[in-house]
Write a structure and sequence with these properties.
Elements: E1 5-9, E2 13-18, E3 22-27, H1 34-51, E4 55-59, H2 68-86, E5 90-94, H3 99-112, E6 117-121, H4 124-132
Parallel strand pairs: 3-4, 4-5, 5-6
Antiparallel strand pairs: 1-2, 2-3
Helix pairs in contact: 1-2, 2-3
Length: about 130
């Protein structure tokens, strides 16, 4: 189990800081509105600023698919801002088991090309090891 410090949570996600110097965003199975999803990502950005980290682990095990509107907002607005404001550079995605959730994550990953390094993993432990290197 990866040790973390709680930062924020709601019905859809838990944000925490891992002492290995990254933010962990763990998605839960509860659906979230567009406004709630944006809020979660804004909390991620604030957590990255607060802890002065440039790495993120996004755990999608239970996450419902992200709506296309949020996919576009992430790739066109949030990601460039996170890169500019905190130097966001690395994203480890622990993939969901649901095919539509995996597809949505891959679509966002395609939008990240050139902005940061990202990889997809089957387990938290593999993602953690990649982020620590």
């Amino acid at each position: 189990m990866i040790s973390t410090l709680h930062y924020f949570s709601n019905a859809a996600a838990v944000i925490s800081y891992a002492p290995a110097s990254y933010i962990r965003l763990e998605w839960l199975s509860a659906p979230a509105t567009v406004a709630e999803l944006r809020s979660i990502y804004e909390h991620v950005l604030r957590a990255m600023q607060h802890h002065r980290v440039i790495r993120l682990m996004s755990v999608h095990n239970q996450r419902p698919p992200i709506p296309p509107e949020i996919q576009t907002w992430l790739t066109q607005e949030w990601l460039p801002r996170a890169v500019a404001e905190v130097g966001y550079r690395y994203c480890a995605v622990v993939e969901a088991t649901a095919p539509l959730s995996r597809l949505a994550a891959r679509a966002i990953g395609t939008g990240m090309k050139g902005l940061l390094s990202y990889e997809y993993f089957e387990t938290d432990a593999l993602a953690d090891a990649w982020l620590r290197q």
